[in-house]
Amino acid sequence: MCSGQLYDTIGATYTVTRRTEPRIAARIWAALSDARTVVNVGAGTGSYEPSGRDVTAVEPSALMRAQRPAGAAPCVASAAESLPFEDQSFDAAMAVSTVHHWQDPIEGLREMRRVARRVVVLTHDASDTGWRRRFWLTRDYLPEVADLVAGRPSLAELARAIGARMEPVLIPWDCADGFFEAYWRRPEAYLNENVRRGVSVWTRVGPEAEQRAVHGLRDDLASGRWAGRNRDLLDLEAAELGLRLLIA
Ligand SMILES: C[S@@+](CC[C@H](N)C(=O)[O-])C[C@H]1O[C@@H](n2cnc3c(N)ncnc32)[C@H](O)[C@@H]1O
After folding, report:
1. Which residues contact 71 (CB under 8 A, 6 or more apart)?
2. How far is CA 21 from the centre of its chain?
3. Are 236 and 164 contacting, i.e. CB atoms less than 8 angstroms apart?
4. Does the C-beta of 102 come closer than 6 Å to ligand 1?
5. If we measure between CA atoms, which residue out of 82, 81, 91 comes closest to residue 116?
6. How far is the CA of 201 from the centre of ligand 1 (A)?
7. Which residues contact 75 (CB under 8 A, 6 or more apart)?
8. Is any atom of ligand 1 closer than 6 Å to the C-beta of 38?
9. pLDDT digits (tens, 9 = 90+) for 187-215
10. Which of 82, 101, 171 has the most ligand 1 atoms within 8 A of CB, as the residue to mutate?
């Protein structure tokens, strides 16, 4: 199943937990610099789209497009790998939490580079085992995440494809956007079905792994085992879990 189709299946409750996190948005918008025209690729329901600029969204999933709020930027039904725009049509192209879904991420990034003078991408290092070991959810409950990212291009390969520099983005403890790692200091959140349905990982690992992880976490929260293992997190305001801004 390609990812546009995946979101046509899982996207119905996306906006319950997924929205713009202002501190991360500030980083993205600063990286857009003085761009007046911006294309937002893999735009979903419109999170992180800047106001005060001329934005065009690109989103392959009809279900996601249908949830864009009234007054949101116009949205084109297309995929990153073949953007229906002339060369250099935009001052900047942005992509947030979407590159890991693309069938051909390198081609998609090259397309962004082709249609825009500046490229800003928020993503993860799929091939980096470091963050998966550091993040208790993947380390202790959901090791299957490793299979999902096997064979995907590394962040260095993505950056090289468009000549981007990389900046780490810390995840605040009270992150407003409920992506996979967002609740690193609020473990009870992962017991909530709505939280899990807002993140494709939980569907992609399958119901057996999901239920095993949720039961294991519930037991460890009740017994105090989670707190014993993760005491050091409780004083942190923000965590480095492999989130990166690519800027080219
Ligand atoms: C996790 S959502 C992120 C949406 C939005 N950028 C946000 O930050 O909330 C991932 C989005 O990528 C879209 N997507 C999947 N494959 C894509 C592709 N090849 N090109 C562009 N977008 C794609 C999905 O349909 C989905 O809307």
Report:
1. none
2. 12
3. no
4. yes
5. 91
6. 13
7. 43, 56, 57, 58, 59, 65, 68
8. no
9. 999 999 999 999 999 999 999 999 999 99
10. 101
Choosing from 47, 64, 98 the residue with most ligand 1 atoms within 8 A of its CB, the one to mutate for a pocket test is 98
Three-state secondary-structure class, residue 203: helix
Query: Which DSSP helix (H) or strand (E) runs through 31?
Result: helix 22-31
Contact 177, 21 (CB under 8 A): yes
For ligand 1, atom 4, the nearest C-alpha belongs to: 44
User: Is 59 near ligand 1, meaning CB less than 6 Å away?
Assistant: yes
Report field, pTM of the whole predicted structure over 0.85: yes
| Cβ-based neighbour number of residue 134 at 10 Å | 16
Q: Going by CA atoms, what residue is nearest to atom 25 of ligand 1?
A: 4
What's the gap in Å between 79 CA and the centre of ligand 1?
9
Q: Whose CA is nearest to atom 27 of ligand 1?
A: 44
Report residue 213 as tokens.
């992880």
- In tens digits, the chain (248 residues) has pLDDT values of 555 689 998 898 999 999 999 999 999 999 999 999 999 999 999 999 999 999 999 999 999 999 999 999 999 999 999 999 999 999 999 999 999 999 999 999 999 999 999 999 999 876 666 766 789 999 999 999 989 988 899 999 999 999 999 999 999 999 999 999 999 999 999 999 999 999 999 999 999 999 999 999 999 999 999 999 999 999 999 999 999 999 99
Q: Is 48 in the pocket of ligand 1 (CB under 6 A)?
A: yes
